[in-house]
Amino acid sequence: MEAHVYAHAYHELYYLIKAQDPTARIVAGNIVQPTELRLQYLDMILDAYQDQFGAPLPVDAWGAHNFILREARCGVIPDCWGADIPPGIPADTGELLDIEDNDNVDIFIARIERMRQWMADRGYQEAGLLIDEYGVLMPEDLGFPPERVNAFMDATFDYLLSAVDPAIGHPYDGYRLVQRLSWYSSSDDPFTFNGRLWNPANGALTPVGQNYRDYVTPLPGALDYYPANLTAAPTAAAPGQAAAVTLSARIANQGNLLGHGNLAVSFYRGNPDSGGVQIGSDVILSGPTGCGETTLAAVTWPNPAPGAHMIYVRVSAAGGVLETNTANNTYSQTITVP
Fold this sequence. Notes:
4-stranded antiparallel β-sheet
């Protein structure tokens, strides 16, 4: 789909879906690999959207596959296996890779970092990045037996679960580069590509599926709530009435478990551990699901004195829910009341 057509269709579907369900999460992108050529295509979409609607493309997250494929225009370049050329781009070639590159971990990592840098440069650092499909597509008879596929799986899982960068990572997910990932495939039937986890003919795990199970099973679960930021908005007061300020804090979960149960969020003027005074009552909220998604807590601060105040916000799990890490449950910031 050419970029200007994608931009128009995306706009119609985005607002149609949001009107029916404002909580729906809309993910843009899903390019087959984050190469320079395909990020150029996404730039064309951003430009087309801005031209048509006078605003940046709205997204809740960006999606991308991360297969490692050759980019060549079929019908022009003889050896054109892989991903072809995005529509609207005049180039006949992009990355001219070999079959042996299909499990190159260095190329895989470079593309993740390139995608995150592209997001940060264009104002989308606070959006999630979903690597929603990747794996080894080349079959065993081209030199990719299960042992080689499993080695690629282990190396990429190690990277995706741990990669952080404060400059380009998600600020509400411990600056992780990737918020969700999905291996290709659970089953590919009829069998065409490599990497499937189970055989639908007999329900048995493949050797790749056994490796997936063995990697995932011992991973420790973590639930880690923390206040990510704090903002203040003065409220206009009627004549003769005291002004107020609305304090808001964004609460994140940088663990790998979905949030469950409730949270208690408290705001204080001064350090609560050394005599700070609570502002309003505890705010009770449902825990955020994590992976870059957040929830917002707000409280009204009546008639604050003008000037600078050190405000603290503290979050704690309620209802007997235990967090893995409580060292980051308090956040402080200077708020100036005009």
